[in-house]
């Protein structure tokens, strides 16, 4: 145990714990294992831990949990591991922990930014909506960047995150959120039936309020000890998963709950395999919400001075961590719970200067006990002001209806305005809260999902009632989830504490007639005055008040502030609270790291990288790859000393001179099988298929219903009832979906099935005059003669002893083949073909050469030369539309007036007047370059390349009325001058097509 | 029907070139899980109306399951229910289910996909947790018993999942996604182990 100044000997639950050294703002301190950073700082007498968001006011530790609005610090493990905005009240201490305060310069105790506090009239509510609007130009250049820099909270890490994060989907029958007495009782009841239970709590230790409620006794044990024993029992059960350090941050549709487990943030040296955080995505049949209640602060002048904290928090620090938050504390309360804190502190030897109770004549055992201990108790009085700056030094007390002031020196003030049921998750589940007029609080009203609230979050007061309610709810949730038997016994509450009520809104001394800074929302620096100003300026809806003032916004989600803000607004509006309504609680309940959300999806798992069977060969040859969707495709194969231009030129020439090998494996492939296969093809493609003989191929065009080109590809008929369809690489999945969609919804009467075979077959295109010579020696069982295997035909046989679907087809205009082999044989067959090819001087070519070669022939690429607004006629493909067909997808769309009107953009060729000039793809085309800007654009370049085979540049373009303009001169205005072009046909090389059989 | 594709797809003995399966031999072992790429097998994507199921079952020697999320297995051949008219047939015994289907006259579509898929086994006490790193299905033994099968997702990819034992799964994915799936399962296994 450390000898820290405020550690009380014999108090707390970690008296035997080992010392853990840590530093805060460079100063070294000793804490103990089991501490949070907050309790360890308080043990050393440190209250000042941060500067506020807007006014840079010194701030201390307000709470002992996730509701903490002030004590947000940066935790550093190393240069790359810097986490901003960590709640010191949640961060567990480990030996060597380094923490830094935020939002201050040059130091925490002297912060230049605190000038904002003095200049605060400028920064009043809604200031960024109005104050800095003039002159307009200054907003972007001056005000916005300055305000952003000044107002940000914490500093983002500037290096890649070296930690890893994991994720886990889980299902359970009963998910219990919150591990206090209620959650544990519910989990016990559910678990005893044998159903699957998950119990999660955001703290390292279960117990919730039992951490501080010294008066609680359950099953004959101290409440906290009972909680530990119960959780140990649950942990040992096979049907239960217990998740400490796990925050349920979002409640989504159909009982889907997102939770983040802090796996290793509390460890001194997390192992390499250990994730930092684990994202749990849980689908539960029933959810039990046991999220407890959050204590409210009192709203009075300068209520944010370090040393002023929630009474329950002070009690937690004492009873759980053995830390006294001061030596001479004052208490300011409007309900009984603060008395218990005062009593516990007094018993631990701390002087309690006075209890100031806003109520007139409260009675009860805690009040009697406080008096019996000799504590001065004042009724009907208010603390109207706190003294001190970096630490509270006094409280000034006044009768609540006015009168003489009295200033009492204190070094801490414990306050309690009552407890707010924590309905965040219930509200996120789309449940509707209801206002209880008697207790002045919103509690769960109408449920929208299969969940139930128990205990303090349901407005249930008293431990006994809580345990009864929770145990019954847990058992019912299990039954509703299908449990048959229950064999447990309900925990028996022997002694408990109970309190309710309190007050809402500003306390005396912070009323509408004052200009004091009485904070409602500490994290967003919103005062009672700001809320009033919002109403004064015309905000009537609480949602507007929230946005105008930022009360309850952002990461805080109004945990301590919502009800006070609402009450002040309601008072100003002269309306009862339920008429003003409650703002919507948003996920996440507490901030969630990007790491947890991304979890595994980073680096190689960010997105699948698809590689073909032949990829390793291309890689070994030094290919440069390009991304095509998720695929890596060989772009070109540079030889030593070659740039891309030289490599592509060489590859293009080789294909036309001898032959080239190309990896076409990524092309989408779909096997269409069934007696109605041809009928289906007739409906999905513009072309006729019924008469296509088995063994022959056809170039097919697929339209959408609107008549525009959707995809294209060569289709081979393998048998009367079997087609081998190819699609574009990028189109493969959506074409499959498109076909399946029509088959299931429009043509369900057809007996035909679709199977993706993209990855079954590796595809090696062998193109060029020597292609047959290269393939023939390796093929068995297929007659390769032009008579037996003409252009656009397909045969099944063997190559290199493995099965092949051998297509005679061409995307280059040369004699060509596409060799399909089962994927695992792809690389070996490629190597065999490559070896043959070497005898003839063949080259491997990549996607760039493929693009150039097809452009030389005017073959279009769907998605490059078309853009979803191009019809077959626009693309010059009328020949591929079956003239006698009466139906296919798009046939009616194609006949729409606009699609047959004159002057549509048509695909044509362009030749630059200067053959050396290569146009830019996407460049706009005009008729008259001398016209005034903006010029009338009549089309654009879709494809453009240098063609070594043509000895000039070539381009394809969509031009209005293009085919009627062939021979005309048009212009392409570019930043460096206007380029003159001649409109031509689309075929630049071998116009007669003789080379297909060459 | 289906005569054109009726031949055996892998006459391994006569081929003059080497078969190179993706990820061949890759495996990783974490404390509670082993993730291992399985050797090649024969696979058929079988589509058929209910009326053909009996004839196809007879030809295949395994009764095609009719209940969602189930599979049937006999003599090294497993049929996984993927949809009301869809099965994935896997043969680990070196026989050719495509050839067996070719003789069936009843209406159906059988397409060879032996090379389309890669199989990865996930075994060990943490096997379900490993897969649940990226698969949202309930993998408890009650909801997903031994023999259960499902086409589902893992992270950003589609997989077919088959439970082969209480602590063993077969994960099938398309060839080009296998590196992603293997890497994902490896990461999941690290987390399942701790």
Oligomeric organization of the protein chains: heterodimer
Query: What overall geometry of chain B do the principal axes of the alpha carbons give?
Result: globular
CATH class of chain B: Alpha Beta
> What is the distance, rounded to the nearest whole angstrom, between the alpha carbons of the first and last residues of chain B?
53 Å
Give the strand content of chain B. Answer: 25-35%
The helix tally of chain A amounts to: 25
Could you tell me the mean pLDDT of chain A? 94
| Tally of helical segments of chain B | 4
Tell me the β content of chain A. 25-35%
CATH superfamily of chain B: Probable tRNA modification gtpase trme, domain 1
Please state the structural category of chain A: alpha+beta
Dominant shape of chain A: elongated
Looking at the structure, the CATH topology of chain B is Gyrase A, domain 2
Organism (chain A): Mesorhizobium ciceri biovar biserrulae (strain HAMBI 2942 / LMG 23838 / WSM1271)
Domain GCVT N-terminal (chain A): 614-885
Region (Disordered) (chain A): 479-498
InterPro entries (chain A): 2Fe-2S-bd_N (IPR042204), BFD-like_2Fe2S-bd_dom_sf (IPR041854), FAD/NAD-bd_sf (IPR036188), FAD/NAD-binding_dom (IPR023753), GcvT/YgfZ/DmdA (IPR028896), GcvT/YgfZ_C (IPR029043), GcvT_C (IPR013977), GCVT_N (IPR006222)
């Amino acid at each position: 145990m450390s000898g820290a100044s405020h550690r009380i000997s014999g108090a707390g639950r970690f008296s035997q714990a080992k010392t853990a050294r840590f530093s805060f703002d460079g100063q070294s301190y000793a804490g103990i294992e089991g501490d949070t950073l907050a309790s360890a700082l308080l043990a050393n007498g440190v209250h000042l831990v941060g500067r506020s968001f807007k006014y840079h006011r010194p701030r201390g530790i307000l709470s002992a949990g996730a509701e903490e609005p002030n004590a947000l610090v940066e935790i550093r493990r190393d240069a790359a591991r810097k986490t901003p905005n960590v709640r010191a009240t949640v961060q567990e201490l480990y030996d060597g922990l380094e923490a830094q305060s935020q939002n201050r310069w040059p130091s925490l105790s002297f912060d230049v930014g605190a000038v904002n506090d003095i200049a605060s009239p400028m920064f009043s509510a809604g200031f960024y909506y109005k104050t800095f609007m003039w002159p307009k130009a200054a907003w972007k250049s001056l005000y916005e960047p300055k305000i952003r820099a000044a107002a940000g909270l914490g500093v983002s890490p500037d290096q890649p995150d070296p930690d890893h994060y994991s994720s886990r989907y889980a299902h359970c029958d009963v998910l219990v959120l919150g591990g206090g007495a209620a959650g544990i009782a519910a989990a016990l009841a559910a678990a005893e039936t044998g159903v699957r239970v998950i119990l999660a709590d955001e703290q390292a230790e279960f117990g919730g309020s039992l951490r501080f409620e010294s008066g609680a006794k359950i099953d004959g044990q101290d409440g906290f000890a009972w909680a530990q024993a119960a959780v140990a029992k649950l942990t040992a059960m096979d049907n239960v998963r217990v998740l400490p350090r796990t925050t349920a941050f979002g409640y989504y549709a159909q009982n889907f709950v997102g939770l983040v487990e802090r796996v290793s943030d509390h460890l001194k040296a997390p192992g390499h395999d250990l994730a930092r955080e684990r994202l749990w995505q849980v689908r539960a049949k029933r959810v039990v919400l046991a999220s407890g209640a959050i204590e409210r602060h009192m709203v009075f002048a300068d209520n944010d001075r370090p040393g002023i904290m929630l009474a329950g928090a002070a009690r937690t620090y004492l009873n759980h961590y053995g830390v006294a938050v001061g030596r001479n504390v004052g208490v300011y309360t409007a309900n009984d719970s603060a008395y218990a804190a005062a009593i516990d502190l007094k018993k631990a030897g701390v002087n309690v200067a006075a209890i100031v109770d806003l109520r007139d004549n409260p009675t009860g055992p805690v009040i009697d006990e406080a008096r019996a201990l000799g504590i001065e108790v004042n009724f009907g009085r208010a603390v109207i002001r706190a003294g001190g700056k970096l630490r509270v030094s006094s409280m000034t007390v006044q009768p609540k209806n006015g009168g003489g002031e009295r200033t009492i020196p204190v070094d801490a003030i414990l306050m309690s305005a009552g407890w707010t049921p924590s309905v965040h998750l219930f509200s996120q589940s789309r449940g509707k809260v209801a206002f209880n007029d008697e207790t002045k609080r919103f509690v769960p009203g109408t449920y929208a999902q299969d969940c139930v609230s128990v205990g303090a979050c349901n407005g249930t007061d008293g431990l006994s009632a809580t345990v009864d309610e929770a145990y019954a709810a847990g058992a019912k949730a299990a039954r509703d989830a299908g449990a048959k038997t229950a064999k447990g016994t309900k925990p028996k509450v022997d002694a408990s504490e109970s309190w309710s009520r309190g007050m809402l809104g500003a306390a005396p001394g912070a009323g509408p007639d004052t200009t004091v800074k009485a904070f409602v929302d500490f994290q967003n620096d919103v005062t009672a005055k700001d809320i009033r100003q919002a109403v004064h300026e015309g905000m009537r809806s609480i949602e507007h008040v929230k946005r105008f003032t930022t009360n309850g916004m952002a990461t805080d989600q109004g945990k301590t502030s919502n009800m006070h803000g609402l009450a002040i607004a309601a008072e100003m509006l002269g309306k009862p609270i339920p008429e003003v309504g409650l703002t919507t609680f948003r996920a996440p309940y507490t901030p969630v790291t990007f790491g947890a959300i991304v979890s595994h999806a980073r680096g190689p798992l960010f997105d699948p990288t698809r590689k073909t069977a032949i990829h390793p060969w291309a890689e070994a040859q030094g290919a440069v790859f390009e991304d095509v969707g998720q695929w890596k495709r060989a772009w070109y194969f540079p030889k030593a000393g070659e740039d891309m231009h030289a490599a592509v030129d060489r590859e293009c020439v080789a294909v036309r001179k001898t032959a080239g090998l190309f990896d076409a494996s990524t092309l989408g492939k779909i096997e269409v099988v069934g007696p109605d296969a041809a009928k289906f093809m007739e409906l999905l493609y513009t072309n006729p298929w019924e008469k296509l003989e088995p063994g022959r191929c056809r170039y097919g065009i697929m339209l959408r219903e609107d008549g525009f080109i959707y995809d294209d590809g060569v289709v081979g008929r393998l048998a009367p009832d079997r087609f081998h369809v190819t699609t574009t690489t990028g189109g493969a999945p959506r074409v499959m979906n498109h076909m399946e969609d029509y088959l299931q919804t429009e043509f369900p009467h057809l007996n035909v099935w679709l199977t993706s075979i993209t990855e079954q077959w590796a595809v090696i295109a062998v193109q060029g005059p020597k292609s047959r010579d290269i393939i023939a020696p390796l093929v068995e069982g297929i007659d390769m003669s032009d008579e037996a295997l003409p252009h656009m035909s397909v045969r099944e046989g063997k190559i290199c002893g493995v099965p092949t679907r051998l297509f005679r087809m061409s995307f280059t205009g040369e004699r060509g083949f596409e060799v399909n082999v089962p994927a695992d044989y792809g690389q070996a067959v490629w190597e065999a073909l490559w070896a043959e090819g070497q005898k003839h001087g063949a080259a491997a070519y990549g996607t760039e050469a493929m693009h150039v070669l097809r452009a030389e022939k005017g073959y279009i690429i769907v998605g490059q030369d078309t853009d979803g607004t191009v019809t077959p006629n626009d693309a010059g493909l009328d020949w591929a539309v079956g003239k006698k067909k009466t139906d296919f997808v798009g046939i009616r769309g194609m006949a729409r007036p606009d699609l047959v009107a004159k002057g549509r953009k048509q695909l044509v060729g362009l030749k630059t007047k200067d053959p050396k000039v290569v146009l830019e793809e996407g460049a706009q085309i005009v008729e008259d370059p001398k016209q005034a800007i903006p010029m009338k654009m009549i089309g654009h370049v879709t494809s453009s390349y240098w063609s070594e085979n043509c000895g000039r540049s070539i381009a394809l373009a969509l031009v209005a009325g293009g085919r009627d303009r062939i021979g005309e001169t048009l212009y392409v205005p570019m930043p460096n001058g206007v380029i003159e072009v001649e409109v031509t046909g689309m075929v630049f090389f071998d116009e007669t097509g003789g080379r297909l059989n060459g | 029907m289906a005569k054109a594709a009726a031949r055996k797809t892998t006459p391994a003995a006569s081929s003059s070139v080497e078969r190179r399966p993706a990820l061949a031999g890759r495996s990783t072992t974490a404390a509670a899980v082993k993730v291992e790429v399985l050797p090649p097998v024969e696979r058929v994507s079988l589509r058929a109306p209910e009326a053909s199921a009996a004839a196809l079952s007879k030809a295949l020697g395994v009764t095609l399951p009719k209940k969602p999320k189930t599979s049937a297995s006999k003599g090294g051949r497993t049929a996984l229910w993927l949809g009301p008219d869809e099965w994935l047939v896997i043969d680990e015994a070196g026989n050719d289910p495509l050839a067996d289907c070719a003789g069936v006259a009843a209406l159906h579509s059988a397409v060879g996909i032996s090379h389309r898929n890669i199989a990865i086994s996930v075994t060990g006490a943490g096997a379900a947790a490993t897969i649940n790193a990226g698969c949202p299905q309930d993998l408890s033994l009650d909801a997903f018993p031994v023999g259960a099968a499902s086409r589902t997702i893992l992270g950003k990819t589609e997989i077919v999942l088959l439970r082969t034992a209480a602590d063993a799964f077969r994960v099938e994915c398309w060839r080009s996604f296998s590196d992603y799936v293997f890497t994902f399962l490896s990461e999941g296994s690290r987390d399942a182990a701790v």
